[in-house]
Amino acid sequence: MKPAGVAEFFRRLAESRPAPETELRYESPYTLLVAVVLSAQATDAGVNRATPALFAAASTPAKMVKLGEAKVRDYIKTIGLYRTKAKNIVALSKLLIERHGGEVPRQREELEALPGVGRKTANVVLNVAYGEPTIAVDTHIFRVGNRTGLARGKTPLAVELKLEKVVPKQYLQHAHHWLILHGRYTCIARKPRCFECVVRDLCAFKGKTVL
Q: 29-130 sits in which CATH class?
């Protein structure tokens, strides 16, 4: 996709969703971090059903460590991989206390050093909690980038790096959310809703659907 097409692509997404936000519910950078860790291989809706009770019991690293792994498991047992996630949440909470005074760091490398935190999770926290213009490539963004021709790549990192190069600066802050929401509700995996897509004429996908 040529630069003019990319600019128009995001102009239209911005027009259709002027104030995009994460659909995960959170109260602070810490609860956002926990929610994003829980969202791996799970839906935001599923995470949002479990976290209100968890955060009511433990909304800080110290409270989460005190709560303990077994009780964390009880709160999140409806979420996939809950045993591993409970272990990671308690472990990362301990490290936040030991290394960062209980605060969530603002550097990607320090975030990725926490248990259960990969590049995607770190990018979400940096973008949502701290306003950094990062792009967290999940399955939705990976699909949209490749399907539309916006940013093709064989790995999430390749798509992320291409998006960082091609997305106009004025759209970088919210590009992550526009692409996720577009992939979640319009450019869906099995049968994309091309007939209601605001960027269908800019898209390189050959198998466009009709109503």
A: mainly alpha
165 catalytically annotated: no
Specify whether 2 is catalytic. no
Q: For the residues 118-146, what does the mean pLDDT come to?
A: 95
Residue 73 exposed, middle or buried by CB count within 10 Å (0-12, 13-18, 19+): middle
Contact, 124 vs 163, CB < 8 A? no
Instruction: Tell me what pLDDT residue 211 has.
Output: 82
Catalytic residue among 94, 138, 169, 208: 138
Is the domain spanning 3-20+135-202 CATH 3.40.50.300? The answer is no
| Domain map (residue ranges) of the chain | 3-20+135-202, 29-130
Average pLDDT over residues 165-181: 95
| Structure tokens that stand for 165 in this block | 């190069």
Considering 63, 77, 94, 120, which one is annotated as catalytic?
Answer: 120
At residue 56, does pLDDT exceed 90? Answer: yes
| Residues 178 and 17: beta-carbon distance below 8 Å | yes
Q: How confident is the model at residue 1 (pLDDT cuts 50, 70, 90)?
A: confident
